[in-house]
Amino acid sequence: MTARRRILISGAGVSGLALAHWLHRSGCAVTVVEKAGAVRDGGYPVDVRGTATEVVRRMGILPQLRDAHIDSRRFTFLDAEGGEVASVGPRAVAGGVEGQDLEVRRGDLVASLHALVRDDVEFLFDDSAATFDPAGRGVDVTFRGGRQRTFDLVVGADGAHSHTRESLFGPEERFHRYLGYCFALFTMPNTLGLSRELVMWNAPGKAAALYAVGDADEVHALLTFHRPQPPSDALRDPDARRDLVATVFAGAGWEVPGMIDALRDAEDPFFDTVGQIRMTRWSRGRVALVGDAAYAPSFLTGQGTSLALAGAYTLAHALAAHRDHTAAFAAHERSVREFVAANQALVDHGAATLFPTTARALEQRNTLLRGLVTLPSATARPAHSALTLPGPPAGVTADGRCHRGPGPSGRR
Fold first, then answer.
1. Are 259 and 211 in contact (CB under 8 A)?
2. Residue range 264-279, pLDDT digits in tens
3. What Cα–Cα distance (Å) separates residue 170 from each residue in 69, 164, 165?
């Protein structure tokens, strides 16, 4: 009888939890390590589109995600003085399909994924994998908490700034493609009484947005700005980041001064550059990467979550179909490489036009938005559904349930 594969997943985000679900269902012994004390319940709303919608259907959580669908009513765009440029339906801008694609709070999605696996998968919270030694017939992992364990395989699902990737493949700079923008995300009081809507202010090279996903007392705030080169020094210092944002938006109108003040007091600020992770291969030896760690497309594409879900599914399927991990990793890359490339290319085809860098480009965008008011709702972008999913891993039904018979490892 073949022994169960012992697989460590680094990161309990969307890709890590989805992968844990499918690996467990195909008979693996799964451990998930997460540096936070629990799964993270915050974060900006995320989209589940196209192929990823089928993934969550097969997981059995589509109904509850439909119940959690945000269903925003309008996106309103303002000029530099705060005057209204246009108010349009969200799908006209985002490219979603009504009744098919979903937008949910990230925390709701993560909670649904965690509920699927919390009783079946080992979780190591408040810890992380510090070093990897892939010598021999497994990967010897030393955790920051001091424990040492050996796994057959390790998967880095630890985000765009992946420690797993850096440890095994080299510095992030080799793989990071900077897209010319920086951003700050945080929550702040809903002083405007916004409800199920987004309001975005623009000036050349700058944008500020408030997004109310319901009727809550708080809104999600976004401040983003163009920068030809990434501000490396500010990235390492929280005070420098806040000072940089305040300097960039000094003198801005509308609600921006209040947003700057709220950023200084925010308990959940997140500052980063807008970029993609582009790699020629996503595995080395017994270690693979999935989700943003391997192919972050940037929030400009709106496809990060969908790629994470689809990538986790196809990786688990490949591992179930191939006992040899080298063959499995190669099969996974062959199946999703073009899908990833198509979605990363969305940013090359105008996705960044929401944040024009010149007065002329801003006026062109505004003219486009005024035209969208009278246009029908957008249809799905081909890239969203460019991947045909293989059948469920061996031993698993299409709705994610296990057969009673043995899985790929020869036992249940």
1. no
2. 999 889 999 999 999 9
3. 39, 9, 7
